[in-house]
Write a structure and sequence with these properties.
Layout (H helix, E strand, L loop, with lengths): L9 H10 L59 H11 L2 E6 L5 H12 L4 E3 L13 H4 L5 E5 L2 H5 L7 H8 L5 E8 H7 L7 H9 L1 E4 L7 H10 L10 H5 L2 H17 L9
Parallel strand pairs: 1-4, 1-5, 2-3, 3-4
Helix pairs in contact: 1-6, 2-3
């Protein structure tokens, strides 16, 4: 378990805001990707994991959430419990796992359980730093969850998320929590040979990092998945992978690579 350090830093926020150029106010809803039905900021209880980029399947999408797509509890390593506990006292909660392991769904279910009435702010990698100059964001009277899907995109963007900007994001009068997902391979790339940029290293050190594996890595989780989804073949892959069609996508990719290698255009000319 990696419990991040407190990111609350009023001095950082004041320095950042005072240094920013004076510009016309930017509406908060213009800086986010997900809005409520009335065009404002949604609360967690209004959302579903698919609106936050979980992969839809034949069992569920944004219109049918919780009808035929039951959540499989992530009991390996007490992941569900650890995420919920981290949300209570950590400013940056980071869920790391393989592609299609169920990171977004797992994180959403924990946030929905712990912070159902918090406002959800979903910036993109270009607008996340603009939140710091948005008075409407700073003055929100409700708790806020800042949702960052694929954290690597924010860490390597032109206006990258840094420890300083993260501290400013979470320095508000009301509780603010940043939650993020990150694919294992991207985490490993950023950590390769330990040669990690200082800001990125500090971000990881400050985060409460939690590892999530596919349900196929745990007998009890896989059994629970099989009971909840009796028609799905779980003989090889985890439930999230199967629902997302990952095996079929992998097979398609492999066929494409094979075809490319033997396609007429790739063959040497006859001599």
């Amino acid at each position: 378990m990696n419990t991040g350090r407190d990111l609350n830093n009023t001095t950082v926020v004041n320095q950042y805001v005072s240094a920013a150029p004076v510009e016309a106010p930017v509406a908060l809803v213009d800086l986010v990707e997900v809005r409520s039905g009335d065009g404002g900021l949604p609360v967690v209880a209004e959302l579903d994991p698919y609106r936050l980029k979980a992969t839809p399947s034949q069992f569920g999408d944004s219109a049918t959430y919780r009808i035929n797509d039951p959540y499989v509890p992530r009991t390996r390593g007490n992941v569900d419990e650890e995420v919920r506990a981290a949300l209570a006292d950590t400013r940056l909660v980071l869920l790391i796992g393989p592609s299609k392991a169920g990171k977004t769904r797992t994180l959403f279910e924990a946030v929905a359980h712990e912070l159902p009435q918090a406002r959800v702010v979903v910036p993109d990698r270009r607008s996340v730093t603009e939140l710091l100059g948005c008075a409407e964001y700073r003055d929100l009277a409700e708790p806020v969850v800042v949702w960052l899907e694929n954290l690597d995109e924010f860490l390597t963007a032109e206006h990258a998320l840094t420890p300083r900007t993260l501290a400013a994001l979470t320095t508000r009068a009301v509780r603010t929590t940043v939650v993020a997902t990150l694919r294992s391979e991207k985490y490993d790339e950023l950590n390769i040979d330990g040669e990690l940029a200082s800001d990125i290293r500090t971000m990881f050190e400050q985060a409460h990092r939690i590892r999530l594996e596919p349900t196929s890595a745990d007998r009890q989780e896989q059994a629970a998945a099989a009971a909840l989804y009796p028609g799905v073949d779980l003989s090889r892959y985890g439930i999230a992978e199967m629902l997302a069609g990952a095996p079929a996508l992998l097979a398609y990719y492999r066929r494409g690579r094979t075809t490319a290698r033997v396609s007429p255009g790739s063959r040497p000319s006859p001599r």
